[in-house]
Design goal:
Distance between the termini of chain B: 34 Å
Structural class of chain B: mainly beta
Largest sheet of chain B: 7 strands, mixed
Radius of gyration of chain A: 13 Å
Number of strands of chain A: 10
Shape of chain B: globular
Largest interface: A-B, 21 and 25 residues
Helix content of chain B: under 10%
Order of helices and strands of chain B: EEEEEEEEEEE
Number of strands of chain B: 11
Number of helices of chain B: 0
Strand content of chain A: over 45%
Oligomer: heterodimer
């Protein structure tokens, strides 16, 4: 099973960039890296995903290490609405997704 | 938002009773998943389906069974509910090409 490791919690000041790290040392060559976030009492919400190259969308950027054993989700300007639990997950060739315990992000006004 | 609904949204039941949770999608996605979420464990995969009548076990499948007789519906059954199955249950759907799963709103189940 593909597994990920993330810090339990992080803090950021509002309007500052946030870098959320994820280690996935057992990743295989065909595993996609997905990031989700979850607000209280809601289901996980898709943020971004990638395979090898860095990716950008309107929500965030995803930086993937050259060896693919780690990745970083970048929120360019944190807002109070970005306070959530962020999950880094891997999708294997069987289309199964395995979640870790995620990083709880606190945004300080 | 992807068209995924879960029913019921909340349920309280007693130990030993059978419980069925329903996940319904309007997106015609091939893959469907059931996860449970507990404090300190994140989301854990219970069962998944890769097509009608095609299902397989996830990492925490003991005590659960699933069925998928139609593309749009994926049922999760607890044959005899136990207190350890008190949890929030999430359904998700995805397509093999994009792979990105979309999650339903969740069902909060309490087993007394």
């Amino acid at each position: 099973d593909a597994k990920t490791t993330q810090p339990n919690s992080m803090e950021s000041n509002e309007e500052e960039p946030v870098h959320l790290p994820c280690n996935h040392s057992t990743i295989s060559g065909t595993d996609y890296i997905h990031w989700y976030r979850q607000l209280p009492s809601q289901g996980p919400e898709y943020v971004i995903h990638g395979l090898t190259s860095n990716v950008n969308n309107r929500m965030a950027s995803l930086a993937i290490a050259e060896d693919r054993k780690s990745s970083t989700l970048i929120l360019h300007r944190a807002t109070l609405r970005d306070a959530a639990v962020y999950y880094c997950i891997l999708r294997d060739t069987g289309n199964q997704f395995y979640f870790g315990t995620g990083t709880s992000l606190t945004v300080i006004p | 938002d992807a068209g995924i609904t879960q029913s019921p949204r909340h349920k309280v039941t007693e130990t030993g009773t059978p419980v069925t949770l329903r996940c319904h999608q309007t997106e015609n996605h091939r893959y469907m998943y059931w996860y449970r979420q507990d404090p300190g464990h994140g989301l854990r995969l219970i069962h998944y389906s890769y097509g009608v009548k095609d299902t397989d076990k996830g990492e925490v499948s003991d005590g659960y069974s699933v069925s998928r007789s139609k593309t749009e519906d994926f049922l999760l059954t607890l044959e005899s509910a136990t207190s350890s199955q008190t949890s929030v249950y999430f359904c998700a759907i995805s397509e093999p090409t994009s792979g990105t799963p979309f999650f339903g709103p969740g069902t909060r189940l309490t087993v007394l």
